[in-house]
Amino acid sequence: MDAAFQREQQRITEVIQTINNELQQLVGESSQLKNERNNIQKYFWDEVKVNVESFDDYLETMIGLRQETQALAVNQSMHRHANKKSSKLRKMKDNPYFGRIDFREDREKTTDEIYIGIATLTDEANDEILIYDWRAPISSIYYESEIGPTYYRTPSHKKITGQLEKKIQYMIRDGQLQTMFDASVTIGDEVLQQVLGQSTDKKMHSIVATIQQEQNKIIRHTGSRLLIVHGSAGSGKTSAALQRVAYLLYKYRESMTADQIILFSPNTMFNSYVSNVLPELGEENMQQVTFQDYLEHRLGDEMKLENPYDQLEFILTAKNQEGYGQRLQAIKYKASPAYFEAMERYFVSLSEEGMLFHDLNFNGEVIMTKEQLYNQFYSENLGMKLHNRLDLLKESILKLLKETEKKAIKSDWILDEIELISDDRFTKIHKIMAKKKGYRPSEYDEYDLTHRDLAIYLVKRKMNKLRKKVNNVDFIDSKTIYRHLFDWLVQDNLTLWSEIRIDTFRKMDLDELYYEDATPFLFMQELMKGFQTNRQIRHLLIDEAQDYSAFQFEFLKRLFPAANMTVLGDFNQAIFAHAKDTNDFMSLTSLYGEDETAVVNIQRSYRSTKEIIEFTKSIVPNGESIVSFNRAGSRPVVTTHTSKKALHDALSKQIHDFQNHGYQSIAVICLSDEECVEAYEALSNIPNIKRVKQSTSEYEVGTVVIPSYLSKGIEFDAVIVYNASTEVYADDSLRKTFYTVCTRAMHALQIHSVGSVTPLLEAVPENRYEMN
Ligand SMILES: Nc1ncnc2c1ncn2[C@@H]1O[C@H](COP(=O)(O)OP(=O)(O)OP(=O)(O)O)[C@@H](O)[C@H]1O
Questions:
Q1: What's the CA-to-centroid distance between 328 and ligand 1, angstroms?
Q2: Closest residue (by CA) to atom 25 of ligand 1?
């Protein structure tokens, strides 16, 4: 062991000692805070004398109350802070840091040794920073700079220049230094080799120790409202997005919390797959949702919404069904900017005519007909914006409801209802009304429920539903207005328009909506009523963004007007029918304008071995620009079989071999769920094999059978493509799907086919795979 190594080990031991001391101190502080809290709670009512006889007494009571609740809030906040700190320290105890830079500031004589870990650690006694947080401004040098002159910027943007003299990377396990490398040029090729070469355990991990320069740009970007990241499969887009969340939480720690950040992810299983990364860094997870969750939340009560994966399953399996071509056209058109613009024009036309309403019914009688609503809407306030006009109409309806209520209170039918009221109900109403009038429970008996009170109560209750409907502007007939859009839109260039129209109506007749209609429908509703907004959210991250339509982006922008957006995607993995023909995010620039948009392209791919990347990159037309990380493995193997039986026998053996090899996550990837059913049944003899379905919410390590579209975003030690035959992967429409499934493999890729292999392989040079 050389002297430098020994010196480093000595330092690690000392740092761990400091961490242990701090942890001990925090345990003490925590228990003191707990005692304090218990005391506050115990003596709360002793400290606060409730007396409201005079105004002064009332004021004193309120002040006392406020002081005690404030003391409780301060205590809780200190407790939370102490807990967060000890959780970080516990994470650092065995592996306190991973890197060091030796930086000499210009005009300084001494060089500072800056050690970098997941959080800052200070030696209070000597006023020395023992570890810098990886997100601290000076730590950017570790990720960005090569040996020589360099700089970093302070939070106030001051440029600090100096010399980077050394960059070192450490691997520490259980407090013992395993190895240290000179990382002068790139961070840890050796460490990366080790990390990437490992068999995957359950979930995705943080990559802070080995963030690459181009990824660092994404993580620390703050210059524009919209950041677009286009990167090849396995280039670390999701990883960078999650470290970016951690970075934002650090940089804006005074003003931003994890619940002000939302990650839009492709499915619920993906949420579980990435859920460990932020906690590993000692941060709370951001909110995670799917776009479908949001649509369900907004429209689920009104209609049954098709799931995006059901749409995909149809596209993948129903090629021979009648109406297939027309559905495909509809999906593409309904997600296009052309449809978006058409809808905006249609919306403008509604100012003149075309708004439709529901009759307003109360107690079985129409109190205002749809025609009356129409006439009123198109005769008043014509110069105003449509949703302001709707607001005014709403106000006038609410007035009408009040008058209707007044009349109803005196009507004969309410007298009849009062006559029929049961004793139980009467008692209940008596209590409610007494409470409303300010009586205490002990005084309920004193309250005399009059006939009039009863009538008011019953009428108001009856009116509630209608009032709610009016307040939500649900008196407009959105469904018919959406249908009329199809009549209004005479599509010259869509050959199957009339069939598309009929099919959409047929679905809507069942109170259902195709996935491709859900966002446009909601968008139109929002245009009319005014957009619901959420100003709490400060940052939005959209992963697998190639699958989002122009509508969805526009929608998210309007829904979260105070948020910045990070959009990450790869058009080579655009597997949804509407997104297949698009190759870039250019149309997104118009969202916030060019000045507010930054674009980063990343081409280096880390997930797979060099051999797998060389193979997969030739599947897609522009793939040659993808750069593989230099990690060696075996070439992918393509095997053809003469029958399904032979395929299944071979797969059983293959899975067995992979398991013996020590691979922990093995995926048999089928094109569709329909194919999964077949594969799962045939492979059911394999112990613990699982079928991943749309409803699967937990990512579990092991051997799985999974449809292509659910494998997106995740990775496996070994991938077996179930049946890449000419029949299944028949043509170019599945090129991106084929690329996506093959790029899920980290260490081994086996492609099988029954009969001749897919023509998509013709693009791959023969020396990039083995053929059996
Ligand atoms: N700098 C890095 N250090 C260590 N591992 C990395 C690094 N960058 C990426 N990886 C690893 O590479 C794999 C792929 O990363 P990730 O899933 O983030 O890529 P992606 O671009 O989102 O992929 P895809 O588009 O195919 O879903 C992960 O296992 C991740 O941990």
A1: 32
A2: 233
Q: Residue 279 Cα, ligand 1 centroid: separation in angstroms?
A: 18
Q: How far is the centre of ligand 1, averaged over its atoms, from the C-alpha of 770 (Å)?
A: 26
Please tell me the distance from the alpha carbon of residue 136 to that of residue 129, in angstroms, as a whole number: 12
Over residues 674-698, mean pLDDT = 94
Per residue in 459-480, pLDDT (tens digit) is 999 999 999 999 999 999 999 9
Q: Is 238 in the pocket of ligand 1 (CB under 6 A)?
A: yes
Q: Does any ligand 1 atom lie closer than 6 A to the CB of residue 231? A: yes
Task: Give me the pLDDT at residue 766, please.
Answer: 94
Q: Is 131 exposed, middle or buried (0-12, 13-18, 19+ CB in 10 A)?
A: buried
- Where is 728: in which H helix or E strand? none
pLDDT-based confidence at residue 201 (cuts at 50, 70, 90): low
In this prediction, residues 653-666 reach a mean pLDDT of 95
Ligand 1 lined by 211 (C-beta under 6 Å): yes
Task: Tell me the H-state helices in 451-573.
Answer: 451-471, 478-488, 497-509, 515-529, 550-559
Contact 291, 264 (CB under 8 A): yes
212 lines ligand 1 (CB under 6 A): yes
Site to substitute for ligand 1 among 228, 575, 606, most atoms within 8 A of C-beta: 606
As given in the structure block, the two tokens for residue 284 are: 């709370």
Residue 233 marked ligand-binding: yes
Distance CA 261, CA 541 (A): 8
**CA distance linking residue 38 with residue 345, whole number of Å:** 63
CA of 204 to the centre of ligand 1 (A): 9
Q: Is the CB of 570 under 6 A from ligand 1?
A: yes
- pLDDT, one tens digit per residue, over 272-324 is 999 999 999 989 999 999 999 999 999 999 999 999 999 999 999 998 898 89
703 CB near ligand 1 (under 6 Å): no
Q: Is the CB of 569 under 6 A from ligand 1?
A: no
| Residue 207 CA neighbour count, 13 Å, CB half | 30
ipTM value, please give it.
Answer: 0.99
Find the 238 Cα to ligand 1 centroid distance in Å.
Answer: 7
- State residue 507's pLDDT score: 96
User: What is the predicted pLDDT for the residue at 50?
Assistant: 66
Query: What pTM was computed for the model?
Result: 0.88
643 a known binding residue? no
Q: Would you say how long the chain is, in residues? A: 772
CA of 214 to the centre of ligand 1 (A): 13
**What are the residues whose beta carbons fall under 8 Å from the beta carbon of 629, sequence distance 6 or more?**
192, 196, 604, 605, 606, 610, 613
Q: Which residues pair with 627 in a beta bridge?
A: 604
Long-range CB contacts (< 8 A, 24+ apart) of 548-552?
548/291, 548/579, 549/334, 549/335, 549/336, 549/519, 549/578, 549/579, 550/335, 550/336, 550/337, 550/340, 550/587, 551/335, 551/339, 551/340, 551/519, 551/520, 551/523, 552/291, 552/519
Lowest mean pLDDT among 199-203, 641-645, 741-745: 199-203
Query: What pLDDT band is residue 81 in, cutting at 50, 70 and 90?
Result: confident
Distance 617 CA to ligand 1 centre (A): 16
At residue 656's C-alpha, the angle toward residues 654 and 662, to 5°, is 105
Atom of ligand 1 nearest to the CA of 231: 21
CA gap 708, 567 in Å, rounded = 22
Taking the C-alpha atoms of residue 231 and residue 568, their distance in angstroms, rounded to an integer, is 8
Mutate to test the pocket of ligand 1, among 228, 239, 567, 719 (most ligand atoms within 8 A of CB): 239
**Local structure of residue 336 (DSSP, 8 states):** S
Indicate the DSSP class of residue 187: S
Q: Kind of pairing, strands 365-368 and 512-513? A: unpaired
* Percent with pLDDT over 70 in the chain: 97
